[in-house]
Structures are given as structure tokens and as C-alpha cells.
């Protein structure tokens, strides 16, 4: 999402109004970009809170209390501006819910947008004490938010990092600049710790483009002319096939990088039969099976044909199915999308940077662009990182099923993007009397209700668009949610239907007490952990529906007396 643009407005001094300002005062406005995908929804929310396109004034003599009040107002507006699709879906149309905390992602984006706005004013008001204090206050809020999402992992001191240290030294010889040290972490494998205290905006790592593995390397190889003749051959597949061979090249420029890679990746794509069957009752079982079938079909289209036609370029012993799957897992779990100076987005492997682990509240979020002045990829901090602390990189806003399948892990903290899509027909709103803000969603989903802030009647901790859809399917002409017997009976019917649906889904997962949690198989353990998460989500929906039924029945009793 684009950073909100800062507009500076100077209002004429008018002693007759309450908006009179002195020359030393500062005005800030966080503007909602018109090209925002959800511009209309967000604009309506901002208008409801009375802050759309309105500046926040900071007096040069502002007290700490006044600065805190101004920051709070900007923080609320910035939360709305930085909402993503899921946050809008689960937040609904009630602006009072969305003004407060929505997710760690939204919180960090909102606060960093304010810092960006302050930085843009720095030139004109660099000597302003109020502006400096506002920045300090914003950084302090970021630090407080980060404390609530701290991930504790112990460094495994007995694990050797010799190969990683060799790679890091090679990188520094090639121009890598890093404030991070590679270490092993208990339960997470390799990661990176800060060598020294780093502040917001500091560059944790800078990787020169000369050591980034991109499609340019394939273009310079012998196999490019051959693969270019294959119909439907993508740049990503070319890179995948190139890496299968380069891995075994003793003279490769990237030998030290390939030496640090595991012989076998442990992602969902490598799940054995027992682990896959442990996922029975979840959507993930079918997703993994389909993903592996797709990869196998892709492999069979290429091999053994390429080996038979060009054995010198594609030696059969290097292009087995096992090697192909290894390369797929490498690119799924380690690649990054990088915007190059020509405006093209390319999939790349970035040595050393790939060691950083993911977090729900990462230190590094914005990193996918080549800096044309240095011809490098920079990894700036969005929140402080202290010396000795693990520095996290945001892989993306992915569900746990995606992270398990393609990266091979489940997040340590609750994942706000753990959504489960629902197979519900969404009919056109044409002819319906109610086409409110929550009625234009074309698909529906659920997640754990422990994330919800509103558990009251008509909400129950459930997604407003889903409830709105189910209400309209029962009464297309209802425009209000008043406490009438008719509306309450519909609410009761909806809640009972949802409760029954998710109880069936919970039952389909089987009895969790029968799971062999002590199994020594890494993939079965991971599968059972995921299944436990699914049970937890479904159970929370059932519990919320049951609590909602009690609320509605209590209201109905008033009409039955």
C-alpha cells in the first residue's frame, strides 16, 4: 500500500474563529490515495470519524498531553487508511471498531505512515521541538506494540554456523553490508540476530544486485536457447531448472550459497503419506495433494524429454523428480519478488537475506525494490531491533496453511491471516432493498473469533459481511437490525445454522485426544499441529454461535412475557 501523502496547509490567521494558528504551528494530514482498492469504503469510514482530508494541527507550544491527543487522532485515521481487505472484511462497517487495534500489520503500517509524514515536514520544521517530540512519541508507541508480539526463541549455541559464516564473509567480500549475524534458534532453525542496537529506518542489510540470483543468469547460460523454444516456459521455471544444475557446479559463483542449503526441505510438499492422511478433514489435505500433482505433471512435461534431447545440458542424474521437488521447495521457500529499475517484478534468490525468519510482527516489511542509486536491495527497519535480538522479515500476509505448504512452518503467534474460505453462493444484490457496505463482498470466510472485538448482539464475534449475506438471503427487504421479534428469530436461525455447520466441521477433524502427539515424524507433528489449529478455529465459531443464541433468546424472552 502506498504511504499516505502529506499535505501541508497554511490557513489564514482569523481571530474570529477557533482555527486561528500562529506561524510556528504545524499542520499534518494523512491523505487516502484515490487509487486505493477500497477507496470508497475507507473514505466513508474517515468521513464518519470526521477526519477525511482534514489536517491535524500541532501547536509549537503543545504540551505532552496535547501531543498525545494529536498523535492519537492521527493514529486512528492512519489505521483506517492502512486497512487491508481482510481487516475491512472482519471489521465490518462500524468505524468505532476499526479505530482501535486491528492487527500488528495494520498497527505498524499506520504508525510508520505517521513517521513518514513527520519526516516530510522535517526540512521546513526541522528545528520544531513539537515535531521532534511527536516523532519520539510515535516511535515509543511502535516499541510498545512490538512488545505485545515478541517471539522468544533461544539461540542454540552448540550448533555450528561455519558454512553460514563462510557465506556471510563471501557476501561481505562481494559488497554486502549487514548489521546481522546468522545464528541457530531452537525450534526455528537458522535466523539472524542484530549485532548492535538499530533504530527505525536503519538498514539492517544491503545486498548488491551482483550476487542476486535472477533470470539474467539463465539468459547467460547454455540452457536458455533450449528452454526458450519450450512452449509456455516461464522465467521462474527456467531459474528452477538452472538452479538444479548450478547446485552441483563446483566452480559456481554461488557454491557457498548452495552449500548452506539443506539436502531436503521440510515443507508440506515433502509430507509423507502418514502426515497427509493426518490432515483428513481439513482443506489443506486436498491443497497439498493438488499442489504435488501439479508439480509432478509439470515435471513429466519436461522430463525425460529434455534429458533425451540434450543430455549434455540436462544430465539425467541431475534432473530426477526428487531434485525437481527440491528445487521447487527452494524457490517457494526462499525466493523474493524484487522490483528492478526497469519496472519489472522478478522472482529472485537473495543470498544471506534468505536466512531471516518470518514473524507476525516483523522488523523488516518493505524491501522488494532495487535502489537505483546503489544498485542494491536494502532492508530497512520498520521497528527497532536491539543488539542480540532476532531480526524478523515479513514473508507476506499468508495463512498458516500457505506457510506450512510452501515454507514448512506454523507461526509461533496467532496469525491474523488464518482464514478459512466458505463455499457459499453469493447472489447478485440486484432487486434487494439492502445493499449496504457489507453486502458487496463476493466471497466469504471465517477465522478464530478470539480476534473479534464486538461480541454483542448482531455481531457475536462473527464476520459482518457473512452475517449480512445470511440475513439478506432470508429476508431480502430488511434494511435495519432493530430488536424486533422478526429480526431476532432470523438471528437465531442464522446462528443455529452456523453452529451446526461448524460443529460438523469440527467432528470431521476427529477426536484430538486420539492424535499421536509424541510421534517422531517431523511432518506428522506439523500436520497434527495444523489440525489442532483448525479445531481451535472451528470450536471458537461454535462457542460464539452458542453464546450468540443465548443473547438472542434472552432478548426474545422480553417479547414472550
Describe this protein's structure.
- With 561 residues, this protein is an alpha+beta fold.
- It folds into four domains: 25-149, no CATH class; 153-208 and 350-411, Beta-clip-like, CATH 2.170.270.10; 213-348, set domain protein methyltransferase, domain 1 (Alpha-Beta Complex); 419-428 and 440-559, no CATH class.
- It is built from 19 helices and 14 strands.
- The chain has helices spanning 39-48, 64-81, 85-91, 95-98, 104-121, 129-147, 162-173, 215-219, 224-227, 235-246, 255-259, 273-278, 283-302, 305-309, 321-334, 400-407, 464-474, 485-508, 522-560; strands at residues 5-6, 26-28, 30-31, 56-58, 177-178, 180-185, 189-194, 203-208, 335-339, 345-349, 370-371, 376-380, 420-422, 444-446.
- The strands form six sheets. It has a four-stranded antiparallel sheet, with no helix packed on it. Strands 1-3 form a two-stranded antiparallel ribbon.
- Strand 11 and strand 12 form a beta hairpin.
- The two termini are 54 Å apart.
- The model is unreliable at 1-20 and 428-435 (pLDDT under 50).
